[in-house]
Amino acid sequence: MTFQRHFLDLDDAQTPAIESLIARARQFKSGVAHATTRLRGKLVLGMFFEASTRTATSFAAAAYRLGATWHDFGAATSSMSKGETPADTMHTVRAVGADAIVVRHWESGYPHALAPHFHGSILNAGDGSHAHPTQGVLDAMTLVEEFGTLAGRRLIICGDIRHSRVARSSARAAWLLGAKVTLCAPPLLLPQTSPGWGFSELSTVLDDCLPQADALMLLRVQTERGDGTELPPFADLVEGYGLTEERLKLLPDHCIIMHPGPVNRDVEVAASLIRVQRSRIDRQVENGVFVRMAVLERALHHAA
What we know:
10 helices; 2 domains; Rossmann fold; alpha/beta; five-stranded parallel beta sheet
C-alpha cells in the first residue's frame, strides 16, 4: 500500500504506514488543535451500494470534524441504476467538485475499478469479501491502545473468515504490527487456500485457541455472500464457535473481546457479553471516527 491519493486495501501495506495512521488517529482522539480546518472546502461523497451504519456514520463524522462537507451520493437512486457506466459517473462527480469518494460495494475490487477514472481520492469502505482497510486500521489501533506493542500478542479471529473482508484487513494490520493471528472457523468458512492469506494460522477448534488469546474478535456469518450450501447450521456455529458465558472462562483474564458489528446476539457472542468490562466493541466504533479522519486527511492532502 503506497498510500497517496487512494486507500483501497492493505494487501501490500507496510508497517510504517499502519503505524503512521494510528499515530495520527490518536492525535485526533486526544484533541489535536485546528482539526476542524484541515479539510475546509473539501467535498466528500459517500457512495454506499450496501447497507452501513458504523462505517458510513463514522466517515461522515470524520469529514465533519475535519471541516469537509459530506454528501450522500444515493447510489440506489443515481443514474448508475439506469445503466450509466462507473467511468461516466466518476467524471460527473469530479465535474461537480467532489474531492473524495467513500465507496462500499458488494463486488470485490469495485473501488479499484473506479480509481483510474477519478482524479480525486477513492477510499474503500468495504468491497465484497476482499478488503475493509479502515476497519483493519481501527482494530489495530484498538489493540495498540490496549497493549502498547503487539509483538508476541495473540489475536484470534473467529467466525465467517472465508467471506469476511474484515478478517483479511484486520488480520494483516495486526500482523504487520507484530501480532500472531489465528483464524478460527468451521472448515466451510475458512479460506480455500492454506495457510490462509500467508500471514495467519488456521484452526477449526475454538476452545483450543482461547487459552492463548490476548484478543478475541468475533465475526458474523456473511449470509449475503453465501448461497446457503456453504454455511453450517446456525446451531452448530453457536455450539462450536460462539462466545458463551461458559466459553468465556477459557479466556485469560486480560483478554479483550472485539466485534466489527453488526452483532448477531446469541450467535457469535452471547448478548450478556456484549457490554462486559473486557468488551472493546464500543471503543472500536469510537476509534473508527479518528482513523477515518487520519485516512481522509492523508488522502486529500496527497490529492491536492
